[in-house]
Amino acid sequence: MKFSVIVDALPHLLGAAVTTIWISLLGVLLGQVIGVLVCVARQSGNRGLDMAGGVYVSFFRGVPLLIQLLLIYYMLPLIGIDVPPLVAAISALSLASGAYVSEIYRGSLNAVPHGQSEAALALGFSSATIWTRILLPQAFRFSVPALVNELILLLKASSLISVVGVAELTRTSQTISASNFRPLEIYLAAGVIYLAINSALALFGTLVERRLQQG
Amino acid sequence: MAVTDTPTASVQRVAAADDTAPMVTIRGVSKAYGSNEVLRDIDLTVNKSEVVCLIGPSGSGKSTLLRCINFLEVYDRGEIRIEGQLVGYSETTPRRRLSNAELRGLRRNVGMVFQQFNLWPHMTALENVAEALVQVRGLDKIAAAERARLMLARVGLADKADSYPSRLSGGQQQRVAIARVIAMEPHLMLFDEPTSALDPELVGEVLQVMRDLAAEGMTMVVVTHEMGFAANVADRVAFLDRGRIAAFGPPRQVFHESPEPRLTQFLQTYHERNSF
Ligand SMILES: Nc1ncnc2c1ncn2[C@@H]1O[C@H](COP(=O)(O)OP(=O)(O)O)[C@@H](O)[C@H]1O
Ligand SMILES: [Mg+2]
Prior knowledge:
The complex is a heterodimer.
Chain A: H1 3-43, H2 47-62, H3 65-78, H4 85-111, H5 114-123, H6 127-157, H7 169-180, H8 183-214
Chain B: H1 8-12, E1 24-33, E2 36-46, E3 51-55, H2 62-69, E4 77-82, E5 85-86, H3 100-107, E6 110-113, H4 125-135, H5 141-154, H6 170-182, E7 188-192, H7 200-215, E8 219-223, H8 227-233, E9 236-241, E10 244-249, H9 251-257, H10 261-274
Parallel strand pairs in B: 3-8, 3-9, 6-7, 7-8
Antiparallel strand pairs in B: 1-2, 1-4, 4-5, 9-10
The complex binds adenosine-5'-diphosphate and magnesium ion.
Magnesium ion (MG) binds near residues 62, 63 and 193 of chain B.
GO molecular function (chain B): ABC-type amino acid transporter activity; ATP binding; ATP hydrolysis activity
Subcellular location (chain B): Cell membrane
Keywords (chain B): ATP-binding, Cell membrane, Membrane, Nucleotide-binding, Transport
């Protein structure tokens, strides 16, 4: 073990960690949008929308992320859509997290008592307003722990996008250790960085949860 | 339904042109869940400024009937009209059920108070009251908040405007729920056992608010197990039994003169449960 190796590589690793963070955040944010839309579609009472949402969720939860990623990366060019690795990576991450997030919201929506929307209905609210003002805000609150958990899982899963050549933390670690022949030190450092990021996220999640509980 | 049943409050009021037209008319309404006939051929008229209490054993159909009035529950046969307007179905296309969007106009004039309060936990008391004013009435935020404050004051909760429901007692939560409804200036208010989820010592404050509303001439249909309230505040009382109105009339008549054996039994059970 030579710690000087880590010190030398640290700037590169931290730079790559920033890439990992923003790709994961972007994935989770787009995943939120997809997840809410899919969840609303599935609860809308429209059979076709419900089915389509169901198929989407089954696929992205049932197929390994690595396979999804490679499918998007290799298949889209076949139908004439050429995707840069970064776009393929972010698409795969957001589509996958969208599937999980929609299930998280579905569970949380079921936890909102029926009387909540009934009170709004009886006052003359429109269906759209009931969703945006009554149901989703409460479902979001119930969802915070699961959403933070999802972000942590996604951040770890983002190491898979190294296979399409995006220079995030894992890929960068591979590159560095291939040139300095010190894989142990480099991967150890990468592991510690992942751990640090995820610990910070978990702490952030706890704080948000506590804040929301006061309301 | 004799003329003498007319409450004194509405006699004293200056008679407007349509003051004598009923607020609610229910004619031949039936409803079944599968083979379970929950409402059977219900007829009931509620006049303006009248308080009608629905009493009866659990499962007799009180909530279902009440919820049919604002179409939270669909009725199968018969018709319900509020101020002449058919509830839940199209006037022109027979038995075409109205959508939620089409029901909004009616519902904004019919307030409902629930047993479980159903306040929105992510909003303060003030926000709970102001929300419908903004979303349904189209008031701007400032006007809505101002009006919400006024309504909270009316139910004696001016100092709780910024509290979240979880910080309020059951009685306070129910009063906020009432404020949320009266802010919309409903023509009719429906109450489904508004005090049944409350600790006994908190029942009085809610009943007092309801008494005040009745005295101000609010038209109210109240499902309740508070026989004292029914006896003292109701203009008329309907006793439901297995989906039928088995007794109906002024409280004195229903409570003391009805020959209906199931009612006698119901009242006896009530008295036994409420005496030491
Ligand atoms: N959603 C429902 N599905 C099936 N049966 C129901 C439903 N709601 C109420 N019921 C039945 O309708 C009957 C009347 O219920 P309800 O109106 O709640 O009575 P009450 O309010 O007088 O206690 C009961 O037998 C009850 O089991
Ligand atoms: Mg009931």
